[in-house]
Design goal:
Blueprint (H helix, E strand, L loop, with lengths): L7 H11 L18 H25 L3 H27 L11 H12 L5 H26 L3 H28 L1
Length: 177
């Protein structure tokens, strides 16, 4: 897969600017993401958008080959997770809502963009740990209690991927200290 990273600023601006356009759509309660397909897809999609966006920023600004490799892996894996979840939802007859970044995610993207060269790796990895902890909790919850069997299977399949990302982010952050 070949991805062009030259437009990361434009992509980030569009993601942040477009989100309010979806404000008229009801936002599902976050607690429902472990049980209801619509909430699971909404928050999972937003998480994937966040991971891809922050990883593109890290690729553009990091000088650390390990961090850059991690960011590239996240872009590929979260793109695949999104595509898989969308295909699974479609096959199950579920229309996924468009994802919308939370104010917290938007703030973290702004913080990463503003991080100087000496801090970009630390900020990026520090953001990945709680993002992946939240994603893991949601995946595990939906895998055990979700209302659509096909999406429960997709969540179950995603758990080891998210666990691997979390472990690698923790290891990389520890190596920076």
């Amino acid at each position: 897969m070949r991805i062009s990273y030259g437009c990361v600023g434009l992509i980030t601006a569009v993601i942040i600017a477009v989100a309010p356009a979806n404000a008229a759509l009801p936002t599902p309660p976050q607690a429902a993401a472990t049980q209801q397909a619509q909430a699971f897809l909404f928050y999972g999609g937003a998480g994937d958008v966040f991971e891809i966006t922050t990883s593109m920023i890290a690729l553009q600004h990091s000088q650390n080959p390990q961090v850059r490799a991690f960011a590239s892996m996240l872009i590929g894996d979260h793109t695949n997770l999104t595509n898989s979840n969308l295909a699974t939802a479609k096959a199950a007859g579920v229309v996924p809502p468009p994802p919308e970044l939370s104010p917290m995610q938007k703030g973290m993207i702004t913080q990463l963009i503003a991080a100087g060269p000496a801090n970009v790796d630390r900020v990026y990895l520090s953001q990945q740990i709680p993002a992946h902890q939240m994603a893991l909790q949601m995946m595990q919850g939906y895998a055990s209690s979700g209302d659509v069997p096909q999406l429960r299977q997709a969540a179950t399949a995603a758990i080891p991927v998210v666990q691997g990302h979390l472990a690698q982010a923790q290891q990389l952050l520890g190596s920076l200290r």
